Amino acid sequence: MELLKIQQIEKYYGSKSSLTKAIDDISFTVDKGEFVAIMGASGSGKTTLLNCISTIDRVTAGHIFLEGTDVTALKGKALNKFRRDNLGFIFQDFNLLDTLTAYENIALALSIQKKSAKETDVAVKTVSEQLDIKDVLSKYPYQMSGGQKQRVASARAIVTNPKLVLADEPTGALDSKSAKLLLERLRYLNKECGATIMMVTHDSFTASYASRIIFIKDGKIFSELSRGDNTRKQFFDRIIDVVTLLGGDMSDAL
Amino acid sequence: MLFKLSLSNIRRSMRDYAIYFFTLIIGVSVFYVFNAIGGQAATLEMSDSQYEMIHLLETLISGTSVFVAGVLGLLIVYASRFLMKRRNREFALYMTLGMSKRKISAILLLETLIIGVGSLFVGLVIGIGLSQLTSALVANMFEANMASYKFTVSGGAIVKTVVYFAVMYLVVMLFNSFVVTRMKLINLMQSGKKSEQIKLKNPVLCVIVFVLAAALLGFLYYQVGWRSVRIERNSALAIFAAGSAATFLIFWSVSGMLLRVLMSMKNTYFSGLNSFTFRQLSSKVNTMVFSMTIICLMLFITICTLSSAFSIRNSMNKNLNELCPVDHELVISYDTGIESEYDDITELCKDNGYDITADFSDYVNFTTYSDPAFLFADSLGDAFEDAQAMYSFLQYDTPEQLIRLSDYNALMELYGREKLSMADDEFIMLCNYTSMINLRNKGLSVGAERTVFGQTLKSKYASCQDGFIDISTEHINAGLIVVPDSVVSGEVPDTEYFIGDYSSDDKEAAEKAVHDGFDTAMRTLSANSSNEEGVYGSSNISGYGWTTKLEIKEAAVGLGAIVAFLGLYVGLVFLIACGAILALKELSDSVDSIGRYEMLRKIGAEESDISRSLFRQTGIFFLLPLVLAAIHSVFGMKFLIFFLQVFGTNSIASSVGLTASMLLLIYGGYFLVTYFCSKSIISEKR
Questions:
Q1: pLDDT confidence bin for A253, thresholds 50/70/90
Q2: Which residue has the higher pLDDT, B685 or B514?
Q3: Cα separation, B146 vs B140, whole angstroms
Q4: Quick check: A72 pLDDT over 80?
Q5: What ipTM does this complex have?
Q6: Within 10 Å of residue B219's Cβ, how many Cβ atoms?
Q7: The dihedral sign for the CA sequence B343, B345, B351, B355
Q8: Pick among A94, A95, A97, A145 to test the B interface (most B CBs inside 10 A)
Q9: What are the chain A neighbours of B589 within 8 Å (beta carbons)?
Q10: Which residues contact B552 (CB under 8 A, 6 or more apart)?
Q11: Does residue B536 surpass a pLDDT of 60?
Q12: Residue B408: exposed, middle, or buried by beta-carbon count in 10 A (0-12, 13-18, 19+)?
């Protein structure tokens, strides 16, 4: 079932004299229950794409539909409400509130939605089990490791049962062991809990956990890969092939 | 180059500096306005005694200015230190680029100079503008006439303001340079990276400290509110010190408990942005315990000072009508036991060449007596021992003042007040000084017996009656006993009175005529004296004096105005200081929290929720010290009312209202400015 539909979107920066096309006519769809990765070198426009989908940034032209709602037409309060009720975010630098404990950080996402304390408690407990962070719930961000922080952030993103989870370089600030742990959890959320995840990354290993990969170069879709029945290792090798083909900056992302 | 850097630094951190600059400007203009009052008053039509009052006010303001400068100086040093701390990363950058500490000092010096000169200039311009309005205020307060409006600039006040603030800025410069020389690169670089550590205080300890502090405060409140009379100067200081300590402990423990309490209310805590709001607030309060205490105490002092100052002024004006019904009072007192050769003051004047009756339309002559065997202690009766235990400082061995019933009633006829009547074996106690009334009432009952000049009299009433003979603006009749005429017949009076209204409508001319005439009469009396020992001749006059309505009025109005001006001065500066400290902290916190708000928006918090959270944070932050200060003030005022009684202040409602509105205007103004600035800061895109 089609969840997200991107229709010929464009995003320009700058003035007429020096125009930068960050996104230049991109269209694709994401089905419910998919785990999509968007790959590209720095400056390829992948983060801009994510920001447009997440309604943090506005497109210059084109439409983005989430379950039939045109998010590019939303404004102000409706936009905030849409973001709150439909999207979950995971950021590279975790973006946890340093003044709150892990529990409170996760609960905040629910209390913003005006859920009762009881509902909140149940939901936080459940999600913390799924992400294996029960032990750190009472800790503050400065008392946690990077991996723990990112899993708390993921818990916060997923706890509201959003239609789409958007992750911007989620492993960017993690060591390889923590990154692996996180990605396994994300795949678990995708497979077992049915979460639709869209992840931006420039790291082939990270991308190999996804079920489909969209490659972006200079604001355009360059290629697309589906995992199909491949093992993760096989998929990884195929990704490397495309990355090599992409050449240039991207080759240093091996 | 350095100049350019300094200027751009200021422009860039305008956000941080705005409230600092704003406060300096207010400080400068308030300083100028009050120091220029003398100059402003010079444009008004005033009597000599009013000029004397204005001069006294100038002197007092001058003295207060030193104190005010101290407060403002501390505020400036605090603020600049605070703003400097926020720039550690910037200094680290300069140092890694190889800039010497001397150069960094120079940059800071230039910045302070630019801000100092700027704020002085703007502040003085505003001050000069505002001080044109103070002419009207001075005229109103001193009840003088504003003959014609003139634009005045007080050069003296400008010089004074510039010198005082130059000294303050100099101190700041020295302080900054000192701080710079002690900076270490490693600390500067790490200062921004240290992640915020949340230290929760031991809750049990917090509760214990809170209970102890609250108990101490309760005890102090009791001492101050209900045991006022026992407080002397030293113990008052001790109570203030203990109160300050208790205030500090309350803030310390509340900052530790507040969050725990809120966290235990799960439904509230996990509702909307509350968890975020409370955490932010708690960390703010935690780092501000000491400042909060200072702010709370300053607010407390401000509330008490302003309320009492306004009360004194109000009651001064009100009492004038009630307690000073006639124009003139002359008093001559005699050595005890020796009878005057004249019947009364009228005769004394006439025999010595001045016909006093010509200058008066209505008047009475009368005498009062005292019985050396009937002392204050005797008059108190059964209440004496209690009284001595409570008010050890009173003079219990002074004879009581006695007045004949017929004399008293004649005076009341003149005053237009109610007359008294009683049987031949009764007496009536008159008193209008509240605490003395309470004291005397304890020993009084209907029929209570007192022996005066060997005769036993019974009290007609169970309590003191309202009444007085001396004109004044204050309820200061501590006790006067009305006795039947027969009791004092044959006794020698010890004081003679002449009280009346002028015949002329030109009160000032009449007053001068009476003074000249009476002076001449007394001099003639003295010159003709056959008795070389007595100054005033054979009559054995031990002293004489007069009181006039005009004098009383000018003194009262002037005193009220002086008190009100000084109260305003100190109150304004304190309020500014309190507002500025809180605003600085709140604004810099907002700058630090931009990222947090950005994140809240990303996870979908609505803008209205974020604004509400910010409003609550700022509001509670500003309210906390105010609430405790208000509670302190309730008891502080209870204590002050005890002393204000002498001015006849029974109701402080209107002055408290006035104080509240000033508080609302300035403190509330700072709150609003802070809130809206914070709001604009956190809605900025990074």
A1: very low
A2: B514
A3: 9
A4: yes
A5: 0.80
A6: 13
A7: negative
A8: A97
A9: none
A10: B320, B324, B471, B472, B473
A11: no
A12: buried
Residue % of chain B over a pLDDT of 70: 93
Residue from B135, B148, B127, B91 nearest B572 by CA: B127
Q: Are A144 and A102 in contact (CB under 8 A)?
A: yes
| Model pLDDT, residue B685 | 56
Chain B, 247-276: which have a CB under 8 Å from a chain A CB?
Answer: 266-267, 269-276
Q: Where are the domains of chain A?
A: 2-253
Residue pair B459/B445 in contact (Cβ under 8 Å)? The answer is yes
- Contact flag A104-B275 (C-beta cutoff 8 Å): yes
3-state secondary structure at position B216: helix
Q: Report the amino acid identity of residue B389.
A: A
B393 burial level (CB within 10 Å; 0-12, 13-18, 19+) = exposed
Q: Which of B336-350, B408-422, B644-658 has the highest mean pLDDT?
A: B408-422
Q: pLDDT per residue over B301-358, tens digit each? A: 999 988 888 888 877 777 777 888 888 888 888 876 667 777 788 888 888 888 888 8
Give the residue among B557, B582, B571, B580 at the shortest CA–CA distance from B658.
B571
Question: How does pLDDT run across B477-533, given as a tens digit for each residue?
Answer: 888 899 998 888 878 888 889 998 888 888 888 888 888 888 888 888 777 765 555
How many Cα atoms occupy the beta-carbon half-sphere of B488 within 13 Å?
24
Strand order across the B480-483 sheet = B449-452, B455-459, B426-430, B480-483, B399-404, B360-375, B495-502, B328-334, B541-548
Length of chain A: 254
Tell whether B602 lies on the interface with A, counting CB pairs under 8 A.
Answer: yes
pLDDT given at position B231:
63
Within an 8 Å CB–CB cutoff, is residue A37 touching chain B? no
pLDDT digits (tens, 9 = 90+) for B17-28: 778 888 889 899
Instruction: For residue B34, give the nearest of B574, B666, B566 by alpha carbon.
Output: B566
Q: How far is Cα B164 from Cα B159, in angstroms, rounded to an integer?
A: 9
Would you state the pLDDT for residue B300? 93
Which contacts of B249-252 are long-range, i.e. CB under 8 A and separated by 24 or more positions? B249/B209, B249/B210, B249/B212, B249/B213, B249/B216, B250/B210, B250/B213, B250/B214, B250/B217, B250/B628, B251/B285, B251/B289, B251/B292, B251/B293, B251/B296, B251/B624, B251/B625, B251/B628, B252/B201, B252/B206, B252/B209, B252/B289
Residue type, B366: F
Size of interface A-B (CB pairs under 8 A): 87
Eight-class DSSP state of B202: P
Any bridge partners for residue B606, and if so which? none
- What is the DSSP track for B264-287? H-HHHHTSTTHHHHHHHHHHHHHH
* Nearest CA among B124, B123, B136 for reference residue B41: B136
CA B158/CA B154 separation, integer angstroms: 6
Nearest residue in chain B measured CA to CA from A88:
B603
Q: What is the spatial distance between Cα B189 and Cα B203, in angstroms, rounded to a whole number?
A: 34
**A84 and B279: CB-CB below 8 Å?**
no
3-state secondary structure at position B396: coil
Q: What is the gyration radius of the CA atoms in chain B, in angstroms?
A: 33
Question: Token match 């214990």: residue?
Answer: B208
CA dihedral A69, A71, A72, A74 (to 10 degrees): 100
Topology (CATH level 3) of domain A2-253? Rossmann fold (3.40.50)
For chain B, the domains span 1-195, 336-539
List, for residues A212-232, the tens digit of each pLDDT value: 999 988 888 888 888 888 888
- Residue B232: the pLDDT is 66
Q: What are B452's two structure tokens?
A: 């005066």
| C-alpha separations of B322 from B475, B507, B648 in Å | 10, 19, 11
Shortest CA distance from A84: residue in chain B: B604
The residue written with tokens 């410069």 in the block is B173
